Amino acid sequence: MFLKNKSNGDVVEVLDIAGLTNPLHTQVAGRYHAGEELQEPENFNKSDLIFLSGESLPACWVKAD
Questions:
Q1: Which one, 2, 21, 25, 32, has least CB within 10 Å?
Q2: Which residues pair with 28 in a beta bridge?
Q3: Are 63 and 24 in contact (CB under 8 A)?
């Protein structure tokens, strides 16, 4: 799944869909999807990610309550 980083607008390929939808996880594994070479995986705060359309992630993915 591809999302966008709010701060810089770069596309992020999410590598852990289960972690993305789990509201108890505040970070998700992914990598920037840019350039010719495959980027190294890193952790992204879910609060910094949005859908490519600009919509926020669903509350049930980010809030445990």
A1: 2
A2: 44
A3: no
Q: pTM score, two decimals?
A: 0.88
pLDDT band at 65 (very low <50, low <70, confident <90, very high): confident
Q: pLDDT for 1-58, tens place per residue?
A: 999 999 999 999 999 999 999 999 999 999 999 888 888 999 999 999 999 999 999 9
Q: Which domain holds residue 22?
A: 2-62
- Counted domains in the chain: 1
* Tokens (6 digits) for 21: 């939808």
Cβ atoms of 33 and 46 within 8 Å: the answer is: no
Cα–chain center distance at 1: 9
